[in-house]
Structure formats: C-alpha cells, structure tokens
Amino acid sequence: MHKGSIAVKSSKRIEFIDITKQINHAISASGCHSGICYLYNPHTTAAVTINEGADPAVQEDLIKIFGEMAPNNRHYKHLEGNSPAHAMTAMIGNSSLVFIENGAALLGTWQRIFFCEFDGPRSRQLHWRLRED
Ligand code: ZN
Q1: What range defines the domain where residue 53 resides?
Q2: Which residues of the chain register pLDDT less than 50?
C-alpha cells in the first residue's frame, strides 16, 4: 500500500481543478503498475470527481447547475454562511477511485480527475492510497 497527499490551491470560490497530472505523478512515483487508486477529500466544502476534461464548458455548466440547486440567496440555518458549499459537496461526494493500468490512471478518452472547490480560494489537501493487484 502506497499513500500520500497532494496539495491543491484554489483561486476562486467555486472551481474545478484538474488534478490528473498530480495523481498520475503519485502513481508513477509509487512504481505501481496495476491496481486501484483511492482518492479521499477530507474537507466539508470540497469534493472529488471524475468527469469530462476536454471541454471546459462542461465544468462551467456543472458549476451553473450546482449554483441553481444550492443558491446563495436562500435562507439557511448554518451560521457560517457557506451552506451552498456544503450542499454542493454532498451532491458530488468526497471520495472517488480510479483503476491503475500500465502505471497510470485508467481514464476514458474524455475523463479527467477533478478537485471541486466550493468555498475557496483556499489551500487544500487530497489524500490518496494505492493498492497494487
Ligand atoms: Zn460551514
């Protein structure tokens, strides 16, 4: 079992950050050729997912859709004032996994791994663990 964390720095309140390169670097550095990579986001207002990375308009559309589902101008009980960020995180989830094949993440043609920031800008961590076959 190999494990570690990657640092992610967001520059906007809501942002999808492509972390595929960093994950592939971690896989490559581990020497793992075939297995599973678990990704765990330890934050309550940030998520992790795999989605289309070829057209940036997809991420813009997703951000628009999440904003419509959890708008800022609604009355929320949580006093910190970031309930939309908590809701968006709950919608996506804080973990993901990707298979490892030939020493890299086995992704579909259009897939990329995204760290989803919903309450930035902030410095964050994403934990990963690799299990070899
Ligand atoms: Zn909060």
Answers
A1: 2-132
A2: none
User: From ligand 1's centre to the CA of 108, what distance in Å?
Assistant: 34
Query: pTM score, two decimals?
Result: 0.96
- Distance in Å, CA 103 to ligand 1 centroid: 38
Which of these, 60, 63, 46, 54, lies nearest to 119 by C-alpha position?
A: 46
**CA 31 to centroid of ligand 1, rounded, Å:** 38
Question: Helices 83-92 and 56-69: crossing angle, nearest 10°?
Answer: 120
CATH number of the domain enclosing 41: 2.60.120.460
Q: Cα of 48 to ligand 1 centre, how many Å? A: 18
- Counting the structural domains of the chain, the total is 1
